[in-house]
Amino acid sequence: MDLLKVQGGRPLQGSVRVPGARNVITKLLVASLLSDKRSIFYNVPNVRDVEITLEMCQELGMEAEWDRDAGIMEVRTRQLKTTYIPGRFSGSNRVPILVIGALLSRSEEEIIIPTAPEDTGGQLPINFHIDALSQLGAAIEYRQMKKEGAYFASSPGGLKGCTITLPYPSVGATENTVLAAVTARGSTTIKNAAIEPEVLELILYLQKLGAIILIDCDRTIRIQGTRHFYEVEHSVMPDRIEAASFGMAAIATRGRVFVEGAEHSTMITFLNKLREIGGNFTVKNNGIEFFYDGPLTGGIHLETDAYPGFMTDWQPPFAVAITQASGSSVIHETVYENRFGYAQALIEMGADISLFRQCLGSRGCRFATHTAPHSMVIRGPTELHGAKIEIPDLRAGFVYLMAAAVAKDVSLISGLHFLDRVYENLPRKFTSLGADIERLHFEADQEHFDFKTLIASTQSQ
Fold first, then answer.
1. Distance of alpha carbon 210 from the chain centroid
2. What are 135-150's pLDDT values in tens digits?
3. Omega of the bond prior to 381 within 30 degrees of 0, cis?
4. Please, what are the domains in the chain?
5. Which residues are known catalytic residues?
6. Of 169, 177, 286, 421, which sits with the fewest C-beta atoms within 10 Å of its C-beta?
């Protein structure tokens, strides 16, 4: 078992570069399956999530060369070897379901996507995908097999453009519908579509590939079907989740960090909220510098929302930052259910947090009748103390490392494989900014040592 030993209480200082967004490149790899043309991607992050998606696409027939050091990947799928996604990829990330939209017009075979186990980071409404694709002419059904269930998809009569209104501007459902509409006969109109920068990045790639796509200002996307494709070169946009997270870590630790690659235009809502609590920043030509500029002030009300609202992935690290702000603040999660899984660890570290099942917000919320907490009150400032904490899912990794850096003494963090899935050398980046982090290895029979014993054992090494 590997652990990170973090001695907190040091301001983060220096410069860090954010890589390309893994939420973008994973979708672009699937989108490239639409054609048999070559695509070259630049600024590709070297993380396990990209590796998993590439392995999945290679199972389908993709040829690939990846220079991990240079961040360049060249891919081409001349022909499909299969339309079955092996079960080991179900639940690996949220990309497999998009294979349906990409392959419906490329193969006459049934596309088979094994079902994923429940994701503790928040459930995705797959029914939005199914309903939209069905309106385009896809036949999709769920079948229970011997060892697993799977979605079976085909387009026996071919896909035909139509007007689709999504019940919620879901990013995944929008992406899946756009992918299918690219090769549908005629034109497709998607209303109430997601317009996140990551969705626009997919559309930019598809336009280079040969698609004709128009985006209106009222969440409407119009696609004219085509089967004529071109070779593409595309640079992946910087990861705005990681950029904002490092900005909050700098301010929460009372430091100053220049985040190279942070893009002002994709972070406007976040930057507004940061200024509301007294955090400060300077936008520069090639990034944003974040810095502590005096005591932080809470008393804010924050609701996550679809773009251009406050991004749900910004919410957890922002919660850590406002534990250091004076006053009571409210966070209302309206995008993903059960997104407060990280809160218990913060409470164990001394944060004054109360969770509520009720909606503590002004917006209409899809989770009003659900049982999982989706509102949170944080009172501060509180001095966080060290703890032994285990990263439970992909989204909590940065939060726990950030909280440990804020804390005044030693924390031990396990579940490090989640960090490798979505971040490039995250502990090393924190260390480069002055954080005191050491990677430790313990034998399996030491896993159940209590926190004090573990700390003592590290001090004796």
1. 27
2. 999 999 998 877 778 9
3. yes
4. 2-18+238-459 (3.65.10.10), 22-235 (3.65.10.10)
5. 119
6. 286
